[in-house]
Amino acid sequence: APVVTPSGEGGPASEALATTPGADAPTWPPEFAERYRAAGHWRGETFGRMLRERAAAHPDRIALVDPAPERRTWTYRELDERADRLAAGFAARGIGRGDRVVLQLPNVGEFVEVVFALFRIGALPVYALPAHRDTEIGYFCSFTEAVAYVIPDRHAGFDHRALAARVRERTPTLRHVFVAGDPGVHTALADVPVDADPPEGGPEPHEPAFLQLSGGTTGVPKLIPRTHDDYIYSLRGSNEICGVGADTRFLVVLPAAHNFPMSSPGWLGTLYAGGTVVLCPRPDPETAFPLIERERITMTGLVPPLALVWTEAGPAARQDLSSLELVLVGGAKYGEEAARRLTPALGCRLMQVFGMAEGLVNYTRLDDDEETVVTTQGRPISPDDEIRIVDDAGNAVAEGEFGHLLTRGPYTIRGYWRAPAHNATAFTEDGFYRTGDIVRRTPTGHLVVEGRAKDQINRGGEKVAPTEIENIILAHPSVHDVSVVAVADEYLGERSLAYVILRAGAEPLKPAAIKRFVRERGVAAYKVPDLVEFVGAFPHTGVGKVSKNRLRSTAVTHEQ
Ligand code: OOB
């Protein structure tokens, strides 16, 4: 049976057909690549060699701690050896350079082991989130023609083995399912390592290292090919800005697969610097604060709703949080008043980060004054990050005015993976990425995020593409039309609201029926509309399009 994708837009099959092998991952024109190499940004490093070098330089230092349920640790040497054995085992099962492997693990040590094993053989991890379900996983596996899918046995009350069996049945390329834990009908990850060296000849630095997911504005998430060269440059830059070194003890609170905790400066930045990464199984203060005390955590990254919860819990905490030096907050707009309260409540410094999986990352700086740290979202990592702020017609706005943010640079992609039709509009002709964010620039070069032009809901850092959810709801037999919009929410920043027009003569429905319908389609729980309103008609713009702005401004936001 064909894989169900919630979109008709530039569908995966048509785009795959339109793509030649060399065009899978669009790359920088040669003159740009030369410039970035000459500037010392791209140094020809790869992740596989990076870990090897760190293991040689400080073999007995602790690289990784997985505290639950029993505390497990990996020295740099152990992580390096484990990556070798696992890489050899993957290779023995026919997984090789350029193959895609969908990786869906929560914050467990196996996540880091598998990623480095795949880096070593040049297979590309596709970073699914733990919340993804049949629709998303089925799409990632079929669109990337994945040969393997890596899962936990159960996580957060959900059996991933059953999902894997369903996806495998309808995805002919998928030859392996590897399970961290009890494998059921699949293969135990623990049985994969073999006592041999991994194959010679790893990936080249200019090749993609992995496929990251876009937040997305379209029916299905686009995949982001990041190279060893470009990503490692962003790690080095982030480490320098955040003061990451061998003494850093970084707590991974958000899902490890997300670009923010991976690279800003994240667990990969910390490993690059020879520091220690501690994985946090759940993000609540009850779980995280005891870990901060026990593991002497110095740094972490949070989305704004979590930063709020931690700020509220900080003053009353019984744990000693004094090791914490720096908390990064980003992924969604962090309110100024909330930002002011973080340092007094947690006794550490705050840094705002405004980044995107496509590349560009902005940080406030350690030597910025407090006003700048609480009122701006930072400035770019690199002197070679090019920023354009333009009006609707594409002309530069006056300095200090707000407009659309376009960017190009040494770690911002030039195109999504196998998506030529989408790339034609997501990037300008001269290679600038249209971020969809509305920003203004202060005299010091810091950016302030003022809003968004893209059709997306930012639910506390988790991105929802309304089109994807609209397509699902439209399949309901009683639904005539639907429009999903963002509504303001005190805690999450935004929540999703589905305006639904029922078919003439259809029995009235309760909001819960629509929510259940979406959930039963098998999508991540954060995409299920928070609110559902039944209406007779949508407000329209002058040209007859549904006006999402007017829907937003008329939204009633009572509890459901
Ligand atoms: C991060 O990455 P994505 O790919 O999940 O989302 C990117 C989008 C941005 O285009 C912007 O719309 C929004 O998320 N965003 C922010 C923000 N940080 C991200 N909006 C306002 N204020 C901020 N501080 O979210 C991401 C990637 C790397 C580091 C940090 C965040």
Keywords:
about 30% helix; binds 5'-O-[(R)-(benzoyloxy)(hydroxy)phosphoryl]adenosine; five-stranded parallel β-sheet; 18 helices; globular; alpha/beta; nine-stranded mixed β-sheet
Detailed description of the structure:
This protein has 560 residues and is α/β, with parallel strands linked by helices. Helix content is 31%, strand content 24%. A hairpin with a 2-residue loop joins strand 16 and strand 17. The longest helix is centred in the N-terminal third of the chain and has 17 residues. It is globular, with a radius of gyration of 23 Å. The N terminus is likely disordered. It binds 5'-O-[(R)-(benzoyloxy)(hydroxy)phosphoryl]adenosine (OOB). 5'-O-[(R)-(benzoyloxy)(hydroxy)phosphoryl]adenosine binds next to helix 9, strand 16, strand 21 and strand 22.
Quick summary:
By secondary structure, the chain is α/β, with parallel strands linked by helices.
